[in-house]
């Protein structure tokens, strides 16, 4: 089955996708949201790629080096064997800062025999909008475009540069390398220096994973997902990307193709909550600073999303010259959703602020600023919670009173009260408690529909929505409350399709969704676990893990019929929910083992 069989490499500055057979098919330099230099994933002919080509008798296997973001593709015909170690350098410098240059290293490790391969090196700069020309110089190959916008890319290699650019066969006798750089190097690289970069990057990731707790069940899946989330954080500002790609479609041949190389407040806050639970509080600290920097005015309303460098305007446009993934047009850059109003973001942000203050209250920076943000959020929510919005799924039609948005408005006030208790601001608590109760009463009065025996998508509707499964996770309702249990059952009956969940089934701006939104299935599994159907939840979880690609990575969506991965990839949302589920099962497993030991 044709699938998103790619590995992700990255260094918290940018990222790249490497196909199962070692082709570099997507990368933007010098940072995540820059124009692409390789984009074969979006156009097989024009997009540009960097391919390692062997004869048909070579078997190709691929895996990550354990507990790292280093991707190893192994080529073997039995006697002649070599490995391709792909990574983007990241490690501590003597100054204490990180070295994370806009570079891709392709280290060729000789194993045995006299393996032969050729290279197809074809970068297409600036989204392949104009012609890219290649020039062989003394120390490097430079690729240049100037038709639309001037840009350059440099390739350093230990192999014959003319053979590389002409695609001639290379016989491997010893280790070698390719180094793709956005900037020309001051000091000429060597195989020895590149091998050192590989070791330093390996040690960085091993150290990072070593600071992550070890779980008794699903530890490998948790670690791989955690590394993936780390690669989707932008070190410079603390932003967290939804995904490193644009325009990978939710359904092949349709127009649900969006640019996800931005920081959604909702996605990022959920990621940070999970990452901090794994013990990585520096990521949480940087994200909180990102939010503080976005809110200079006390009455400034948050956008739902921002650029990774805090840009507020994310103008959406189409790249009509690109065919799109599997012919799925249009290819979009920018995202018009930044203009949308979504009231849930305040609750999600307040939840992460409270979590950080609660966990790290003795080691928290910017306490005064966080208290100002808390008061500002309460002021905004108290003024606007009764208004309709676009909801979590960003409906582009009319605004509605979405249940999830109302619940998260309640969360905003609930967590603000908890923050007030931490800071000893008792006079605010009584005032805010009245608002909290008013929102809760409103939800019970208008979101519960007795005819379907469930909390519904929006006030006055009969439509079900997977997002209401989070009511329990956020503490709005108890897991064993009959209303929540019956909501879970109703959602299973209406939205489950062979164990995969629709977000919703009512038609949206683009018709009925035909793929499962991956995170919704994880939410459903968690809900089953919480209401006591733990064996069923575990079986569903293990089945869902089987739908990942060969490296354990998930995209945004899964096709109901074929189970192929769809949508932008890899998706932060999917991996944070995987971690939450896996931790629940692991904790349950640990508790059971303790009880067995006691008895």
TrEMBL record:
InterPro entries: 6-hairpin_glycosidase_sf (IPR008928), 6hp_glycosidase-like_sf (IPR012341), GH15-like (IPR011613), Trehalase-like_N (IPR045582). Keywords: Hydrolase. This is Glycoside hydrolase 15-related protein. GO terms for molecular function: hydrolase activity, hydrolyzing O-glycosyl compounds. Residues 222-582 form the GH15-like domain. The keyword Oxidoreductase does not apply. Residues 7-139 form the Trehalase-like N-terminal domain. The keyword ATP-binding does not apply. GO terms for biological process: carbohydrate metabolic process.
């Amino acid at each position: 089955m044709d699938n998103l069989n790619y590995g992700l490499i990255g260094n918290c500055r940018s990222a790249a996708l490497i196909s199962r057979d070692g082709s570099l098919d997507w990368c933007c330099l010098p940072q995540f949201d820059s124009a692409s230099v390789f984009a074969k994933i979006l156009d097989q002919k024009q997009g540009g790629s960097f391919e390692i080509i062997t004869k048909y008798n070579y078997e190709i296997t691929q895996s990550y080096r354990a507990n790292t973001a280093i991707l190893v593709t192994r080529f073997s015909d039995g006697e002649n064997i070599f490995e391709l170690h792909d990574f983007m350098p990241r490690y501590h410098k003597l100054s204490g800062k990180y070295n994370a240059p806009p570079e891709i290293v392709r280290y060729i490790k000789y194993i045995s025999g006299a393996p032969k391969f050729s290279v197809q090196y074809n970068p297409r700069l600036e989204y392949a909008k104009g012609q890219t020309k290649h020039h062989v110089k003394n120390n490097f190959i430079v690729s240049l475009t100037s038709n639309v916008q001037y840009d350059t890319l440099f390739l350093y290699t230990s192999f014959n540069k003319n053979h590389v650019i002409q695609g001639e066969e290379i016989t491997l006798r010893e280790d070698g390398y390719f180094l793709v750089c956005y900037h020309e190097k001051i000091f000429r690289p060597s195989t020895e220096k590149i091998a050192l970069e590989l070791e330093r990057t390996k040690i960085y990731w091993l150290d990072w994973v070593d600071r992550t707790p070890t779980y008794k069940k699903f530890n490998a899946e948790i670690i791989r997902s955690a590394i993936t989330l780390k690669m989707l954080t932008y070190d410079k500002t603390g932003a967290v990307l939804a995904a490193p790609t644009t325009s990978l479609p939710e359904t092949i041949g349709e127009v649900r193709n969006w640019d996800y190389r931005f920081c959604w407040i909702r996605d990022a806050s959920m990621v940070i909550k999970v990452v901090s639970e794994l013990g990585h509080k520096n990521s949480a600290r940087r994200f909180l600073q990102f939010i503080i920097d976005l809110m200079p005015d006390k009455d400034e309303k948050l956008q739902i999303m921002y650029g990774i460098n805090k840009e507020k305007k994310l103008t959406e446009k189409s790249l009509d010259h690109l065919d799109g993934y599997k012919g799925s047009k249009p290819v979009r850059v920018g995202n018009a959703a930044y203009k949308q109003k979504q009231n849930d973001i305040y609750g999600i942000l307040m939840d992460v602020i409270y979590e950080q203050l609660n966990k790290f209250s003795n080691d928290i920076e910017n306490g005064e600023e966080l208290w100002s943000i808390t008061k500002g959020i309460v002021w905004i929510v108290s003024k606007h919670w009764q208004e309709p919005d676009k909801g979590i799924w960003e409906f582009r039609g009319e605004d509605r009173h979405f249940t999830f948005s109302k619940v998260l408005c309640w969360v905003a006030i609930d967590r603000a009260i908890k923050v007030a208790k931490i800071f000893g601001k008792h006079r605010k608590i009584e005032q805010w408690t009245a608002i909290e109760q008013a929102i809760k009463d409103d939800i019970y009065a208008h979101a519960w529909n007795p005819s379907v025996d469930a909390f519904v998508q929006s006030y006055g509707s009969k439509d079900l929505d997977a997002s209401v499964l989070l009511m329990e996770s956020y503490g709005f309702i108890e897991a064993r409350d009959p209303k929540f249990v019956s909501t879970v059952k109703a959602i299973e009956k209406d939205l489950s399709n062979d164990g995969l969940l629709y977000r919703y089934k009512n038609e949206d701006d683009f018709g009925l969704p035909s793929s499962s939104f991956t995170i919704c299935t994880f939410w459903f599994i968690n809900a089953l676990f919480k209401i006591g159907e733990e064996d069923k939840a575990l079986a569903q979880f293990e089945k869902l893990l089987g739908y990942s690609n060969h490296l354990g990575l998930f995209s945004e969506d899964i096709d109901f019929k074929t189970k192929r991965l769809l949508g932008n990839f890899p998706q932060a949302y999917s991996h944070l929910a995987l971690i939450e589920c896996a931790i629940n099962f692991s904790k349950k497993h640990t508790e059971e083992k303790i009880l067995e030991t006691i008895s």
